[in-house]
Design a protein that fits this description.
Number of helices: 7
CATH class of the largest domain: Alpha Beta
Strand content: 15-25%
Radius of gyration: 20 Å
Order of helices and strands: HEHEEEEEEEHHHHHEE
Shape: globular
Number of domains: 2
């Protein structure tokens, strides 16, 4: 599932192309990618004729800010992706187009989603504000400090890996980058969040920000599913130190990387370096 670096990469690709453009037509091929409160028909009627003021991001959500205050919220989930152009995108790469948004400059924004786990939701400003209020702080914001992470973890008995992935505590961090940050900080992913001391928290705060910045620099991590706009791949997978490396030697100490399952997700860690 795309995490902060992947969604932010897509935002940076789309914003200069879409800011100021008007949606002149909407075609929904797969009705289930339109999320409540709309159905496919009402969604198209509400969106058509609206000007896109800019493309933003909050946590793992991509946000199209519309004239009049509404927000088109996109949840990419595992296989959602975009293409933008005047002609149909590569039919090999984009075989499951679920929606087409025609623009006033003659181009079309295509949304492709093979598993259709993601979706599009059109929210009024107050609806989005209520939803956003439940999200934690953005870890790459300049004002995000170790004390903010300390507050987020101070009372939780949950394993620190699970707590990092809780969007109410820290926005945008998912499975890959939680595993990578915990390795860099030398913290066992099974430790309860509240058991981390101040030194642990400072290292983890630094590691979260570091790994997210590096992944963003590399346009994210592309395995099988994630692609940025028009099929562009990320390259951070070449820098992963533990994620997906079960049985391979730790690049720091040589011990085999281990895999466990936490909250239904794979966690990779070094039993020698993380304690």
């Amino acid at each position: 599932m795309p995490e902060l670096p992947e969604v932010e990469t897509i935002r940076r690709d789309l914003n200069p192309e879409l800011a100021g453009r008007v949606v002149t037509g909407v075609a929904i091929q797969q009705a289930d990618i339109v999320l409540p409160p709309d159905d496919a028909t009402s969604f198209g009627q509400r969106l058509e004729g609206r000007r896109i003021l800019g493309v933003g991001r909050r946590a793992k959500y991509l946000l199209f800010h519309l004239e009049g205050g509404s927000v088109l919220q996109v949840q990419l989930r595992m296989t959602g992706r975009f293409a933008l152009g005047r002609t149909e995108p590569d039919p090999v790469e984009f075989r499951h187009i679920a929606a087409r948004l025609r623009l006033d400059d003659g181009r079309t924004l295509f949304y492709d989603d093979v598993r259709r786990l993601g979706g599009l939701r059109l929210l009024e400003s107050r609806e989005w504000e209520r939803q956003e209020a439940g999200l934690g702080p953005e870890p790459l914001e300049p004002g995000y400090r170790a004390v903010d992470l300390e507050r987020a973890l101070a009372t939780t008995r949950a394993p620190v890996k699970n707590a990092l992935m809780d969007q109410r505590r820290v926005a945008g961090v998912g499975n890959i980058y939680a595993s990578e940050a915990l390795f860099r900080a030398g913290v066992d992913p099974r430790r309860p969040g509240r058991d981390l001391d101040r030194a642990d928290l400072k290292r983890l705060h630094r590691a979260v920000r570091q790994v997210l910045r590096e992944a963003l620099r590399d346009a994210g991590t592309s395995f099988r599913n994630y692609r940025a706009v028009n099929g562009r791949s990320g390259s951070f997978q070449t820098s992963l130190r533990v994620y997906g490396r079960q049985g391979e030697p730790c690049r720091r100490c040589g011990s085999p990387i281990e895999r466990i399952v936490q909250a239904g997700r794979s966690t990779f860690y070094c039993p020698s370096c993380q304690h």
